[in-house]
Design a protein that fits this description.
By secondary structure, the chain is of the alpha/beta class. The chain contains eight helices and seven strands, in the order βαβαβαβαβαβααβα. The protein has a seven-stranded mixed sheet with strand order 3-2-1-4-6-5-7, sandwiched between helices.
Length: 240
């Protein structure tokens, strides 16, 4: 299970989904390229309506622009398809808004290799060092964590974190079955119930550099409720 132990032979790709991130995407992409030896970057521009594509072109960042807006699920899965076809061994998912510090990518990749895991989640709560100001986000995440533990028997402290590293084995599954709705928590559950291994490492995330999150306040709790209902309706398929 997991990836090979010799990281010098690994090909690592960072997938950066981006929607209207013209003010932050160039900085995030540049920091990502400096964060890990030999890492490549693919920005998936999810049909942005601002100057995101122009910035990527001007800065010579490797990117693909989707012809329609697919949302986070479709954008990330596009990156997974690219990574699989190009033969990458490890994929790191990094948000284009600056919340995920690229300098902490080695924590994810090194844990994936050393612990021979299929998925490593960068958790704001695993080390109990970062306080998230939103009470709704803390409560919602805790409730969702309980649901995941009841569903899989596995404890996940930060199920909504999109700062992640995946093995090629997990990539083979997710390029075909990546969930389009609420992908972060449901992806973790699907991998666990289908026999893939998961771990977490403590990370310290940052505030968005620009703009604001689409999920704030009570919307966070509604988001968690919708995720829980999605889990119940789908009944988390065991795939061959």
């Amino acid at each position: 299970m997991g990836v090979a132990a010799n990281k010098t032979d690994l090909r690592v790709l960072a997938v950066l989904p981006a929607y209207n991130e013209e003010k932050s995407i160039a900085d995030v992409a540049g920091r990502t390229l400096r964060a890990y030896p030999g890492i490549d970057v693919l920005v998936v521009n999810d049909c942005s309506t601002d100057a995101t594509e122009a910035v990527l072109k001007q800065q010579h960042v490797n990117y693909v622009t989707l012809p329609v807006n697919l949302g986070i699920g479709g954008a990330v899965q596009t990156g997974f398809l690219y990574a699989w076809e190009q033969g990458y061994d490890v994929v790191v998912q990094v948000d284009g808004d600056g919340q995920h510090p690229p300098e902490q990518i080695p924590l994810l990749v090194d844990a994936l290799i050393a612990r021979r895991l299929d998925l490593v989640i960068g958790s704001r709560y695993a080390g109990k060092t970062q306080i998230v100001s939103s009470w709704a986000r803390r409560v919602g995440g805790a409730v969702l964590g309980v649901v995941i533990r009841m569903t899989t028997g596995h404890r996940v402290t930060d199920p909504t974190s999109g700062f992640r590293a995946y093995s090629r084995r997990a990539l083979d599954y997710l390029r075909r079955f990546y969930p389009q709705e609420y992908p972060e928590p449901i992806c973790a559950i699907e991998l666990l119930v289908n026999g893939y291994s998961l771990g977490e490492v403590p990370v310290t995330m940052q505030e968005r550099q620009h703009g604001k999150s689409s999920i704030t306040g009570l919307d966070t709790l509604f988001y968690m409720i919708k995720v829980i209902f999605s889990i119940a309706i789908v009944k988390i398929r065991r795939r061959k």
